[in-house]
Design goal:
heterotrimer; A mainly alpha (about 220); B mainly alpha (about 250); C alpha/beta (about 200); A: about 220 residues; mainly alpha; about 0% strand; C: about 200 residues; alpha/beta; Rossmann fold; five-stranded parallel beta sheet; about 30% helix; transport (chain A); transmembrane (chain A); transmembrane helix (chain A)
C-alpha cells in the first residue's frame, strides 16, 4: 500500500457512496427548512438568524457524514491492514479527512446560494458565510473523525459519538456565526475568521495523531 | 533516582498501600473544612448589602464550580500521562474522578440557577459562566458514557484518555469563545465575575469552604481509586491477601 | 536464541479482556518453514498473529526478527510482513482489481492478471466485491500472496470458506513460498496435505 493508492481508493469509495453524501445534503436542507416552518417564516426573523441556522444544520449534517467514516473499514478488516501497512497512520488519517472533507463540503458550498436565498441572507454577507464554512469546517471534520474512530468498535456508537463531539463544536459555531453577524451589522469580521482558521490549524496538528491512537486502540 | 516515585506511581499495588493511610485524614479534614466553612458562611457571615442572604449560596456554588474545572484539568493531565507513558494508574484516576467532576458541574449549575432566580429573576440565563459549566457538564457526561460503553478495559482506557486530552486542549478555546459570545450578545448584565471587594468576614469562610471541598474530594478520589484498583487487580495475589486479611 | 531463526517469539504473554492467553509462549520460525498454530476456539491463535504485527500489545515477551529485538520498534518486521487477518481487509465497494491496486499499487498488469487467472478471479476483475461470494472474497485477499514480495506471511484461517480447489492452489503457493526461503505462520483447523508444517499448540 502507498499513500497515493490509499487516497485513490478513498476517493473511489466516496464516489461509490455518493448517495450518502446526497443524503447528508438533503438532511441539511431539511434541518434548515425546520426553522421557517417551526419558528417564523418572515424575513425579519430569518435574515438575521440565517448564519446561525445554516451553521447548526451544517454541523448536524457533517456529523452524519463523519459518523460512519470508519465503520466499513473496521468491519471488513481494512483498518487492520492500514495499521499493519507500515505507513504512517496519522498521515493516512490526515489524507482520509481531507478526502472526506472535499467530498462533503464542496457539494455543501454548491447548494449554499440556494439556501441563503431561501433564508433571505443579504448577498453581501453571502461570501462571508462561504468563508466561514471554508475555514471552519475542516476543524469539524478533524475533531469529528477522532470521535468516529473512538466509537467505531461499538455497535451503537453513533449517538455516543455525537454526545462526545458536539460540545467541541461550540467554539466553531460561535465564531462562525459571529462573523456572519458582524458582517450583517457592517462590523469587522476578520478576527472571527482568523479564530476559525486558527482552530482548523490546531486541530490539523492534534487530530491525526489522536485519530491514529484511537484507530489503533479500536482494531485490537 | 529522582524519578523513581514517578515510575512507582504506575504500580497500582504501590499506590494502593501508599494512599491507604491518606484517605481517612483527607476525608476527615475535608469534612471539618466543609462544616466549618458552610456553617460559618451560611449562618454567621454578614449578609450582602445588595443581595441580602441569597448571596450565601456562593459558599457552595463557587467551590463546586472551581472543582468542576480543576477536575477537568486533572482529567486532561491524566489522559496525557496515560497516552505518553502508559501509566496504569492514570485511567484508574480518570475513572475515579470523572463522575465527581460531573456532579460538581451539576451542583454548580443547580446552585447557579437557584442563585439566578432572586438575582436575575429567571432560573437560567445564558451567562458566560453558566454556559461554559454546562458545556463542561456535557464533556464529563461524554467521557463517562464512553468509558462505560466499552467491554474491553484497554480500549476504554485509551478512548477516554484521548477524549480527555482533546478536551483539555479545547477547554480554554471553549471557555474563551463562550465568554466572547456572551459579551457579543448581551450588554453589561450583572455579572458573577465582578467582585465588589468582599470583606474578610465574607471571603474567609469561602476560603475555608473551598479548601474543605478540595480536601474532601481528594479523599473521595483516592477512595474510589482504591476500590477501582482492587477491582482491576482482583486476580493478583496481593489483592486476595489484602481482602482476606482486612476484609472490605 | 538460534541465529538461524528469522522470527523468534520468547516468553510471550497476551491478555484479552480479563483472560490470559498463551502465557509464557516461545517458538521460532526458520526460513523455509511453515508454522501451524493449533488450538481450540478462544485459545488466542488470532491474537498471537495480531501481537506479532503489533495490533495487540503483549504484556510481556520479546520478539526477535532477523536477530534483532523488534519488540519496541516493529517497523523492520512490519515492512517484510504480509498479514491477512480474520477480517481479510477487502473493501466491498471496490472491484477486485481496484482492491488489489489498493494493496499492491506497483504490480504490473501482467502480474495482476496472472494472479487473478490463477485464483479463478479473472472473469470478475471489474466486479465489485459486494457481489462476490465469501470464498471469492477470500481469494481476492489471498491474491496478495502472489502480488507482494514480503518474506513473512501471517495468515489467520487462510483456508476457511475456500473450496477444495482453492485450498490446493493456496497450499501450492505456500509450498512455493517456503521453498524460496520464506516464512509462513498460519492458523487453521484443517490438515495440510501438500505442505509439511511444524505445529505449535496453544492451550487454554
Amino acid at each position: 500500500m502507498t499513500y497515493s493508492s490509499f487516497l485513490q481508493s478513498e476517493f473511489l469509495i466516496l464516489w461509490r457512496r455518493k448517495q450518502d453524501v446526497l443524503n447528508a445534503l438533503l438532511f441539511f436542507i431539511l434541518v434548515v427548512a425546520l426553522f421557517p416552518i417551526g419558528v417564523d417564516p418572515s424575513p425579519a426573523f430569518l435574515a438575521p438568524a440565517a448564519g446561525g441556522i445554516i451553521w447548526c444544520a451544517a454541523v448536524l449534517s457533517i456529523l452524519m457524514a463523519i459518523e460512519g467514516a470508519f465503520k466499513e473499514d473496521y468491519l471488513d478488516g481494512s483498518l487492520e491492514q492500514l495499521v499493519t501497512s507500515g505507513l504512517s497512520l496519522p498521515l493516512l488519517m490526515l489524507l482520509k479527512v481531507l478526502a472526506l472533507w472535499g467530498c462533503v463540503v464542496v457539494p455543501l458550498l454548491l447548494i449554499m446560494p440556494l439556501l441563503s436565498e431561501m433564508l433571505f441572507l443579504p448577498s453581501t454577507v453571502f461570501w462571508v458565510l462561504i468563508l466561514t464554512l471554508l475555514l471552519g469546517s475542516p476543524s469539524l471534520f478533524f475533531i469529528g473523525l477522532i470521535g468516529s474512530a473512538l466509537t467505531v468498535s461499538l455497535r451503537q456508537g453513533s449517538m455516543l459519538m455525537m454526545l462526545l463531539i458536539l460540545p467541541f463544536y461550540f467554539p466553531v459555531i460561535i465564531f462562525a456565526t459571529s462573523a456572519v453577524h458582524a458582517a450583517q451589522a457592517g462590523l469587522s469580521y476578520s478576527g472571527s475568521l482568523a479564530m476559525l482558521l486558527a482552530m482548523s490549524l490546531l486541530s490539523l496538528v492534534v487530530s491525526p495523531v489522536m485519530t491514529a491512537i484511537a484507530v489503533k486502540a479500536s482494531v485490537n | 533516582m529522582r524519578w523513581v516515585w514517578f515510575h512507582k506511581l504506575g504500580s497500582p499495588k504501590w499506590f494502593f498501600f501508599q494512599s491507604k493511610s491518606w484517605v481517612l485524614p483527607l476525608l476527615g479534614l475535608g469534612s471539618i473544612g466543609l462544616i466549618v466553612g458552610l456553617v460559618w458562611g451560611l449562618a454567621f457571615a454578614p449578609a450582602d448589602y445588595q443581595q441580602g442572604d441569597t448571596f450565601r449560596i456562593i459558599y457552595i456554588h463557587v467551590p463546586a464550580a472551581m472543582l468542576a474545572q480543576s477536575c477537568y484539568f486533572a482529567l486532561g493531565a491524566a489522559g496525557f500521562v496515560y497516552l505518553v507513558w502508559q501509566m496504569k494508574m492514570a485511567p484508574i484516576f480518570i475513572k475515579a474522578i470523572a463522575p465527581i467532576g460531573a456532579v460538581m458541574a451539576l451542583i454548580a449549575l443547580v446552585t447557579g440557577a437557584i442563585w439566578g432566580k432572586p438575582t436575575w429573576g429567571t432560573w437560567w440565563i445564558w451567562d458566560a459562566r453558566l454556559t461554559s459549566v454546562l458545556v463542561l457538564f456535557f464533556l464529563y457526561m461524554g467521557i463517562i458514557a464512553l468509558q462505560s460503553a466499552f467491554d474491553d478495559v484497554m480500549l476504554a482506557n485509551k478512548a477516554t484518555a484521548v477524549v480527555c486530552v482533546v478536551g483539555l486542549i479545547n477547554l480554554p478555546i471553549i471557555k474563551y469563545s463562550v465568554v466572547w459570545w456572551n459579551t457579543l450578545h448581551q450588554g453589561a448584565t450583572f455579572s458573577l465575575a465582578e467582585k465588589p471587594a468582599m470583606s474578610a468576614e465574607m471571603w474567609l469562610p469561602l476560603l475555608v469552604s473551598v479548601v474543605g471541598f478540595y480536601l474532601f474530594i481528594a479523599g473521595l478520589v483516592l477512595w474510589r481509586m482504591q476500590s477501582e484498583i482492587l477491582q482491576r487487580e482482583h486476580r493478583s495475589s496481593w489483592v486476595k491477601k489484602e481482602v482476606m486479611d482486612r476484609g472490605l | 536464541m538460534q541465529s538461524s531463526a528469522s522470527l523468534t517469539i520468547s516468553d510471550l504473554w497476551i491478555e484479552r479482556g480479563e483472560r490470559d492467553l498463551c502465557r509464557g509462549l516461545s517458538f521460532d520460525v526458520r526460513p523455509g518453514e511453515v508454522l501451524r498454530i493449533l488450538g481450540g476456539n478462544g485459545t488466542g491463535k488470532s491474537s498471537l498473529l495480531k501481537a506479532i504485527v503489533d495490533v495487540i500489545t503483549p504484556i510481556e515477551g520479546t520478539i526477535y526478527y532477523l536477530g534483532k529485538n523488534v519488540t519496541q520498534c516493529r517497523d523492520v518486521l512490519i515492512e517484510s510482513t504480509l498479514y491477512i487477518g480474520h477480517a481479510v481487509g477487502v473493501k466491498r465497494l471496490l472491484s477486485v482489481e481496484e482492491n488489489l491496486r489498493w494493496y499492491c499499487p506497483d504490480v504490473s498488469s501482467d502480474e495482476l492478471n496472472s494472479a487473478l487467472e490463477h485464483l479463478g478471479l479473472w472473469p470478475f476483475r471489474d466486479t465489485l466485491v459486494t457481489s462476490l461470494s465469501a470464498g471469492q472474497t477470500k481469494r481476492v485477499a489471498l491474491a496478495r500472496l502472489w502480488l507482494s514480495e514480503k518474506t513473512l506471511w501471517l495468515l489467520d484461517e487462510p483456508f476457511s470458506s475456500l473450496d477444495a480447489k482453492g485450498c490446493t492452489i493456496l497450499e501450492n503457493r505456500i509450498q512455493q513460498h517456503v521453498s524460496l526461503g520464506g516464512l509462513v505462520v498460519l492458523t487453521t483447523h484443517q490438515d495440510l496435505r501438500l505442505v509439511s508444517a511444524r505445529d505449535v499448540v496453544l492451550l487454554s
